[in-house]
Amino acid sequence: xxxxxxxxxxxxxxxxxxxxxxxxxxxxxxxxxxxxxxxxxxxxxxxxxxxxxxxxxxxxxxxxxxxxxxxxxxxxxxxxxxxxxxxxxxxxxxxxxxxxxxxxxxxxxxxxxxxxxxxxxxxxxxxxxxxxxxxxxxxxxxxxxxxxxxxxxxxxxxxxxxxxxxxxxxxxxxxxxxxxxxxxxxxxxxxxxxxxxxxxxxxxxxxxxxxxxxxxxxxxxxxxxxxxxxxxxxxxxxxxxxxxxxxxxxxxxxxxxxxxxxxxxxxxxxxxxxxxxxxxxxxxxxxxxxxxxxxxxxxxxxxxxxxxxxxx
Length: 312
What we know:
- This protein is an alpha/beta fold.
- It has two domains: about 1-220, P-loop containing nucleotide triphosphate hydrolases (Rossmann fold, 3-Layer(aba) Sandwich), CATH 3.40.50; about 230-310, Alpha-Beta Plaits (2-Layer Sandwich).
- Helix content is about 35%, strand content about 30%.
- It contains eleven helices and 14 strands.
- It has helices spanning about 45-55, 75-80, 100-110, 115-125, 140-155, 170-185, 200-205, 225-230, 245-250, 275-285, 300-310; strands spanning about 1-15, 20-30, 35-40, 60-65, 70, 85, 160-165, 190-195, 210-215, 215-220, 235-240, 260, 265-270, 290-295.
- Helix 3 (about 100-110) packs across helix 4 and helix 3 (about 100-110) runs parallel beside helix 5 (about 140-155).
- The radius of gyration is 24 Å and the shape is elongated.
- It starts with a strand and ends with a helix.
- The model has no long low-confidence stretch (mean pLDDT about 85).
């Protein structure tokens, strides 16, 4: 069973006196129930727009999206009854206390008063909000406001949780706690839709990953599927006794995805086969004193950056 199904989804913004902008451009994918799904992409890739469509905040221009077997455009109320959401914006009531924010959110989702109080004690301890419990949210730091927002979604029993850059502004210890909670929720059968620019989070948490840029899919699959891309992508480090523009120009002629020069060292990212790459580097290196040579397969972050750079 799929918790989310997206088919040829488009979102085009058409502001007056400005060229139309395609924020989501023909995306299709599924998210199996009970899994952690990672949506990756640079700033402006369309991640937040996609989350807003799936959570019924923004209607799609065309295509179809179903969440918990309900169409987001035709059945928004049914979708909202089955989801909890953390958006990039701090969606908390600034003039209410932390305690009231958490309790009211639970009440609005049908949680009884006794059970809401029990859950309140649990999330306050987990997210270290005891000292701020009766403070007005307006007076809190950005990071603490973010903690309140994330804590809210664990006051309810929604089967699908959307977390858009959920750990932004949190210290490393709280980020770890949120990641542990995400794992726990997924083991309990909930579906987590996670957007992030922190690739280590995706590597540690996600069952499947979709990488997008400018609203279009660049790559998708399990972590192992994406790692297979590294079989055709290599990171090369070279150090020279002497390095001049002629050598750098010849290295650029190999059309690396990325080339960085630091003193007498060059670091490059290549797409291709290892055999052909080694042959081309050997031709360039003839008669040049190389003091260090290293080649290895690319990691997920390097694959991500290469995909984003290569897309026209």
